[in-house]
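Reopening: Gibberellin-regulated protein 3-like still failing for me.
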Amino acid sequence: MKLLGLFIFSIILFQGFSEALSAANSTGNSLTKEENKAGFQMKYGLKHLNCNYACAMRCSRSSRKNLCNRACNSCCFQCKCVPPGTYGNHHLCPCYASLRTHGNRPKCP
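Support: Ran it again with your exact input. Result attached.
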């Protein structure tokens, strides 16, 4: 009797593992690797950028910190990136570098 119970338990356990494995394989094949990675990051928030902190670092040496932080945060929320350092490095965040004011001047510090 105990042998029959152990046999049934092992079959149920094996079936659970096989269903989990097939579900993981079927969802992984429907998306490309980049789409799957982006979806995972959006779902679990792994690619979240703290704009306030990044802009505080970016504007730490500015003579007009409030103005710099306001512009930087606006750019960060749109682009989801802030170039490292306190000046330059715009090539590392192309969206940040491409934003312009109404006077066609760079918007982001």
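Residues 27-46 have pLDDT under 50 and may be disordered. If you still see a failure, please send the error message rather than a screenshot.
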